[in-house]
């Protein structure tokens, strides 16, 4: 914790706070510490318990994802209120855990929009890698009905799912493009030069263009 405190940089913190993250540790330096520590599950749990964002990010990097119980991950996700901790927990830990599908189903329908966004993120992963058994048309129905008025982080997760369906599944592409065009979610999102817009029709079209086989 002392080492992390020494690495806290006011300029980095100011940039992160614009995105809702309350830490000032350069992520490259954080990864260097994790590389030195290697996997330490017990230390990871203790770092998580500090409730410090930088410590929790480090905990995610040194933990053993498959070692967590289902209920433990559920509690951790509900505690992970900053975007970076939430995203890393879902992508680096939950996706690699044997309880991920059970948690996907539970979180997807959760009344808390931040928790629900994790369910959508896990669903998007399945859309891309393991779509068997998913009701893609049903997902598009929900997106069409709810994405426009969803809170920011849930809306972002739904939009990612919409784009992934359009990119990966040609039979649903026309409808995915149509939903994106009509709802106009993230249409005016500022996009850096060289980056692809998160506006679903642009995102889908660009990714399909890069993959002729699609």
Concise synopsis of the structure shown:
The chain has 214 residues and is an all-alpha fold.
Provide a descriptive summary of the structure in words.
With 214 residues, this protein is an all-alpha fold. It is built from 13 helices and no strands. It has helices at residues 2-7, 10-17, 27-37, 41-49, 53-62, 70-79, 83-93, 100-108, 113-129, 136-146, 152-168, 173-183, 200-210. 36% of the residues are buried.
Brief descriptors of the model:
214 residues, mainly alpha
Query: Beta-sheet strand percentage?
Result: under 5%
Structural class: mainly alpha
How much helical structure, as a percent, in the residues? 55-70%
Radius of gyration computed on alpha carbons: 18 Å
Major beta-sheet overview: none
- Looking at the chains present, what oligomeric state does this protein adopt? single chain
What is the CA-CA span between the terminal residues? 48 Å
Number of helices: 13
Described by the principal axes of the CA atoms, the overall outline is: globular
Query: Mean of residue pLDDT?
Result: 96
The total beta strand count reads 0
Order of helices and strands: HHHHHHHHHHHHH
Low-pLDDT residue spans: none
């Amino acid at each position: 914790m002392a080492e992390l405190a020494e690495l806290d940089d006011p300029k980095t913190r100011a940039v992160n706070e614009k995105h809702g993250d309350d830490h000032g540790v350069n992520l490259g330096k954080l990864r260097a510490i994790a590389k030195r520590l290697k996997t330490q599950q017990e230390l990871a749990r203790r770092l998580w318990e500090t409730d410090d964002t930088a410590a929790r990010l480090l905990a995610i990097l040194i933990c053993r994802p498959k070692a967590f119980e289902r209920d433990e991950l559920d509690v951790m996700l509900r505690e992970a209120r900053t975007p970076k901790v939430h995203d890393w927990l879902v992508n680096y830990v939950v996706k690699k855990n044997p309880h991920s599908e059970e948690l996907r189903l539970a979180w997807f329908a959760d009344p808390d929009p931040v928790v629900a966004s994790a369910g959508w993120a896990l669903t998007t992963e399945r859309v891309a890698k393991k779509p068997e058994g998913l009701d893609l048309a049903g997902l598009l129905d929900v997106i069409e009905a709810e994405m426009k008025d969803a809170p920011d982080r849930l809306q972002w997760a739904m939009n990612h799912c919409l784009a992934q369906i359009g990119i990966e599944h040609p039979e649903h592409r026309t409808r995915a493009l149509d939903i994106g065009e009509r709802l106009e979610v993230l249409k005016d999102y500022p996009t850096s030069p060289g980056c692809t817009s998160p506006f679903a029709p642009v995102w889908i079209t660009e990714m399909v263009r890069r993959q002729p086989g699609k």
